[in-house]
Every structure is written in structure tokens, then in C-alpha cells.
Write a structure and sequence with these properties.
alpha/beta, pyruvate-formate lyase- activating enzyme, 3 domains, 39% helix, globular
């Protein structure tokens, strides 16, 4: 028999936050074999999970059954059920793939999600669509890596953003020039290393921040350091006010095949409130510039922005969809640590209706990847929709953790995937520290991969 306080367990705290946000109650779980007792608010809830335990890998049974017990107790206590049930992890699809690997067929694997992890039928069905969309695109290729390059500069800071970012202004111009110089050096050294190990690039992704916040010369330098990689090649151009014909020409010249132009909403009043400093009209102009260059386009929208109505979101979704981008990504607002809206009150309770609108009006598109974050409005998710054949391989293989990621830039996190092992190496997040410890961290990253690839031989 074992007894423990849920406040001392991070994963159980995450389950409690589904119901109580930060006001985590005092509670204890007592487990004896597959019998679980949850004590909370002077109430006692008892569960026997002997009938479902075999559906969970033995090494994970205790941890997962504890989360299910706490969820079942809190659902009984509050009368609430959550769309993702007892799941608090980033990648729900991994559990489906786990069940498939254990010999279950697709229907049985999705039943595990609903019956064991308490996921709603609607969300389980979405997982089924995603699994089918990813069929043939889940690649386990030890000789390939995804290349990620980080640009930590933005025209302004959005109030929902939690990333480390620096304003692209005159005050930070010298800092940006030094960063670009060091980043180009890191990219070149990284590519030399990949070549020496016989590793090929499956996909390249330039993210941020806002890569197109750089001036044309700096953007040209970064993309020139990468070269024409001859594969799926994404460059974020998330802020429409940073997109110009010059920069699009530079991207196409260097082989970029896919860009992200992200309005987040087409409501100008909301754009001003969240600090975007551009208008819906500027988004349409930027989209037109990109479309004329013949690249694939992704557009991000956020469901659940403060004060937005379902009608606001519907107009934004319909307005973007009418342009026929190859990808549309719908994010449920997450109030993350470090963001300006972290403690600004409750969530937008219309968020669920907004995401439902996206699913029900996405004809011509299919969901192809999904991930979740902490503190998402209404316990929802982020979903990428794609036209058939235009699914982003980088998004799939990175989210499903099937291909190693070699990352360059401040705050960029490299990830080794192979032999049943996942290991990470992080660059310095702070730009000053990135410069001061550049040589040390670059050598450390290359040694990190060198040792892991050697041990895998």
C-alpha cells in the first residue's frame, strides 16, 4: 500500500489544474495493487482498475492509473468532464501509436483513448483522422535530421507570447547584427558536422520570433548560410507587417518552399489589443505577395482571444480559408508563464465553440497534427489542417518525435531521437549569454550528437 500527496507530484498537479487552475486542493491518493482511493475535501472516492490495467504498459501503470483515479474523483466531485479526459501531456497521438504498437487495430486503439484515458469521443475521432493523415509520413530515418534555426526578433511583442524575443528596432540593431553573424557561423559549423557524419536534412524550419523581422541583408545572410537544402523548407513570416516583395524574393532564391503568415485574427480591434501592430488589410497584402511567389502557405489563427466572440473567430476562419492556403493551424489560447496575459483573469468560454466551428467548416482540409499545452482555454488543443498532400513533414516528425532535430540559435533545443532514446541539448536563451558562451555551447552541441551517434552504431 502506498500513500502520497498530489501536491508533491507534478503530473498529478497538472490533472488538478484541469479543474482548479492554480488553486490546487489538498488531496491524497492511496493505492494498493489496482485499487485506488482518492481523499479530497473530506470526501473519499474508491476505484478498482484491475479491468483496465492491462491496457497500459506495465512500466507506466502506477503513474497513469494515479492520474486516472484523480481525474475520476475530480469529475465525480465537480460534475465536469474534460475533452481530453485525464491526459495532460503534449502529444496525445503518442498513446494511440503506443496502442497500435501493442497489436491493437485502429478502432481498438481509439477505444483505449476513450475508455481508459477518458478522452471524449469527439477528440478520439480527431485522433483517428490524424493517424490516418499521417500514414506513410511517420518516418524513422536515422540517417536524416530536421534542421531548425531560431530568430529571436519581432516587430513588437504580442501579449500572449511567452518566448524570449527582442524588438527589431534601432536600439537593438547592433545586437541583431552580432546575432546574425554568430548564427551564420553556427549554421555553417553544424552543416559541416552533418556532412561529416553522413547525415541528410529531411526538412528545414526557420522559426522565431519572426525571421522576416530581420532586414533583407540579414535574412539573406542567414538563408545563404543554410543554402538550398533541396527539401521541405519552411520560413516563418508570422507578422504580416514584416513581409515584403524583397524578402519573399530572397526566400525563394534560397529555396524556401513554405512560409507561415499568421494573422491570428482578422478583427482589427483584437489585433490592437494583443499588440500585433498590423491590420487585417496588411495580412491580405502580405498573403498576396507570398501567393504570387508560388510557395505553400500556412496561416495561424487563435481561438479564445480575450473578448472575441464566436462570430469574430468564424469570420477570421472563413476569411483565411477563402484564400485557399495549403495549411491552416488553429491554436486554442494558452496563458503561458512569461506571457503578458498569464494572470489577466479567466478564459474565454466561447473557445470550444470556436474550435468546433473550425472542425465543422474545414471541408477541403484534414487535421494532420495536434499538440497540447498547459493552461489552454477549455482544456483544448492546437491543430494543423492541411490540403491533401500538403501536410508539413517537419510538423509531423518533430511533434511525433521520430526524427532528430539539429537546432541553431539562441534558445534553440536540439533533440536526438534513436534507439528508443530521446535526449536534448539547449542553447543559451539570453542573447548576451548566447554570444558570450557561443564557442563552448557550439562545441557542446556537436559533441552531444557525436557521442550519441557513436553509441548508436
Amino acid at each position: 500500500m502506498q500513500r502520497f500527496d498530489i501536491r508533491q507530484n507534478a503530473e498529478l498537479c497538472d490533472v488538478a489544474r484541469l479543474f482548479f487552475d492554480e488553486d490546487i486542493p489538498t488531496a491524497a491518493i492511496v493505492c494498493d495493487g489496482f485499487s485506488y482511493v482518492v481523499e479530497i475535501f473530506d470526501r473519499t472516492f474508491s476505484f478498482d482498475y484491475s479491468d483496465i490495467a492491462d491496457s497500459i504498459p506495465q512500466s507506466r501503470q502506477a503513474a497513469r492509473l494515479s492520474k486516472i483515479a484523480l481525474y475520476d474523483a475530480l469529475a465525480s466531485l465537480t460534475g465536469e468532464v474534460k475533452p481530453w479526459g485525464a491526459l495532460t501531456g503534449v502529444r496525445p497521438t503518442k498513446l494511440v501509436y503506443e496502442a497500435l504498437a501493442a497489436g491493437r487495430n485502429e478502432n481498438e486503439a481509439l477505444a483505449v483513448m476513450s475508455e481508459i484515458y477518458r478522452v471524449s469521443k469527439k477528440r478520439a475521432d480527431i485522433l483517428g483522422e490524424i493517424i490516418r493523415a499521417q500514414r506513410g509520413k511517420i518516418l524513422f530515418l536515422n540517417e536524416y535530421v530536421n534542421l531548425y534555426v531560431h530568430i529571436p526578433f519581432c516587430p513588437s511583442r504580442c501579449n500572449y507570447c511567452s518566448f524570449v524575443s527582442v524588438p527589431m528596432d534601432k536600439k537593438h540593431a547592433a545586437e541583431a547584427r552580432l546575432y546574425v553573424e554568430l548564427l551564420c557561423k553556427e549554421i555553417r559549423e553544424t552543416l559541416l558536422f552533418l556532412n561529416s557524419r553522413g547525415l541528410k536534412i529531411l526538412s528545414a524550419y526557420i522559426g522565431g520570433g519572426t525571421p522576416t523581422a530581420l532586414d533583407g541583408q540579414s535574412l539573406d545572410s542567414v538563408l545563404g548560410a543554410i543554402g538550398d537544402v533541396g527539401c521541405e523548407y519552411t520560413c516563418e513570416a508570422g507578422r504580416p507587417d514584416s513581409v515584403t516583395e524583397e524578402k519573399m524574393s530572397i526566400m525563394r532564391r534560397h529555396g524556401v518552399t513554405r512560409i507561415c503568415i499568421n494573422p491570428q485574427t482578422l478583427n482589427d480591434a483584437t489585433l490592437e489589443k494583443i499588440g500585433r501592430r498590423h491590420t487585417a488589410e496588411q495580412f491580405f497584402k502580405a498573403y498576396d505577395i507570398a501567393a504570387k511567389c508560388g510557395v505553400d502557405i500556412n496561416c495561424d489563427l487563435i481561438a479564445g482571444l480575450n473578448d472575441e466572440t464566436q462570430e469574430d473567430f468564424s469570420r477570421s476562419f472563413d476569411g483565411v480559408k477563402a484564400l485557399c492556403p495549403q495549411n491552416i493551424t488553429v491554436h486554442s489560447l494558452a496563458k503561458k508563464n512569461g506571457s503578458g496575459i498569464r494572470y489577466d483573469g479567466g478564459e474565454n468560454l466561447r473557445t470550444a465553440a470556436m474550435t468546433e466551428y473550425a472542425f465543422s467548416h474545414s471541408n477541403g482540409y484534414s487535421p494532420y497534427y495536434l499538440y497540447r499545452q498547459k493552461r489552454q482555454a477549455c482544456n483544448l488543443e492546437n491543430v494543423g489542417f492541411a490540403v491533401l498532400g500538403k501536410e508539413c513533414i517537419n510538423n509531423i516528425t518533430t511533434m511525433e518525435e521520430t526524427v532528430s532535430v539539429v537546432a541553431c540559435g539562441a534558445g534553440a533545443i536540439s533533440k536526438y531521437v534513436g534507439g528508443g532514446k530521446i535526449a536534448r541539448f539547449a542553447n543559451m536563451r539570453d542573447l548576451k549569454l548566447y554570444a558570450e558562451r557561443f564557442d563552448e555551447k557550439l562545441a557542446g552541441k556537436l559533441e552531444f550528437f557525436d557521442s550519441l551517434y557513436d553509441s548508436a552504431r
